[in-house]
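Data availability (excerpt). The following record was deposited with the supplementary files.
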Amino acid sequence: MTGWTHNDLERISGADELLLTSLKEDGTFRKPVIIWVVRKSDDLYVRSYRGLESIWLRHARLRGKGRISAGGVTKDVAFVDVSHDEVLNKVIDAAYQSKYRRHGAMFVDHMVAPKARETTLKLAPSD
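Predicted structure:
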């Protein structure tokens, strides 16, 4: 795996929404879902506001690989579960609150709730 380029990070994290697809068992891609994405330093993170019941999340964790598109950038990624890192989760909470606050607490509160925090995935670019 390689790291993100500065340009990719800027474009993806600058986008309001990200299209995420996970892999099917046969190696083809599932239908994309639209989700929010946040950046911390040189890493990108996503969460499911629906918690562990989210279908896209279950498939992402099961296969561990997928593809994202945002800000004109499309990349294959590995999904890395970082939900157990409490310090990181607090930082990601703050990133969601800062980036999406204009949408109001009604939406942002779901993204920083315990149900969403237990789904935190780091997006790692893959070759």
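Summary of structural features: The helical segments are 6-14, 55-63, 86-100, 105-111, 114-117.
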